[in-house]
Amino acid sequence: AIQRTLSIIKPDGVVKDLIGTIYSRFETAGLKIVAAKMLQLTTEQAEGFYAEHKGKPFYDGLIAFMTAGPVMVQVLEGENAIAANREIMGTTNPDEAARGTIRADFATATNRNICHGSDAPETASREIAFFFTDSEICPRREVV
Ligand code: CMP
């Protein structure tokens, strides 16, 4: 089924100038970018987005990292977009990620893993709504 998923290129991906490379991988895989914005997250925004991780040992470092510089946030649309994006990204720990995935190719550690992708339909809906209003999402139309 056609799905939407939320993708974030994290501060390490932006600072390594990987926006174009990562967008190219999405587009090559048939994932359409239907919304996008660059943001400098506030601590409050990062805490809200990652609320489910509050209290975990990596939480404070995660919030500091995600607010250390701009992120690129996008909505991807396509067939099985949630799983497709996770396949393109590779596993959370880049040491375990399959060759040719974004994290295997560019990430240095689990806490410097270049990108985020929603892990399930309910999370995708919540995460998309966290960053985008309905009118900011622009599905494809035929153009003559
Ligand atoms: P992400 O998909 O953005 O969701 C939570 C993030 O926490 C995860 O990617 C990792 O970058 C980060 N993180 C840091 N340490 C850990 C850890 N030990 N286990 C899981 N996630 C971690």
Task: Provide a short characterization of the protein structure.
The chain is of the alpha+beta class and 144 residues long. Helices cover 38% and strands 19% of the residues. It has 7 helices and 4 strands; from the N terminus they run βααβααβααβα.
Structure description:
A four-stranded antiparallel beta sheet has the order 2-3-1-4. It is globular and about 50 Å long. With 144 residues, it is an alpha+beta fold. Helices cover 38% and strands 19% of the residues. The chain has helices at residues 11-15, 19-28, 43-49, 59-66, 81-89, 102-106, 121-131, and strands at 2-9, 32-39, 71-79, 115-117. The structure holds adenosine-3',5'-cyclic-monophosphate. Residues 53, 58, 62, 92, 110-111, 113, 116 line the site of adenosine-3',5'-cyclic-monophosphate (CMP).
Key phrases:
single chain; 144 residues; 4 strands; 38% helix; 19% strand; binds adenosine-3',5'-cyclic-monophosphate
Distance between the termini: 27 Å
- Cα-atom radius of gyration: 15 Å
Oligomer: single chain
How many helical elements? 7
How many E strands? 4
Topology:
Elements: E1 2-9, H1 11-15, H2 19-28, E2 32-39, H3 43-49, H4 59-66, E3 71-79, H5 81-89, H6 102-106, E4 115-117, H7 121-131
Antiparallel strand pairs: 1-3, 1-4, 2-3
This protein binds adenosine-3',5'-cyclic-monophosphate.
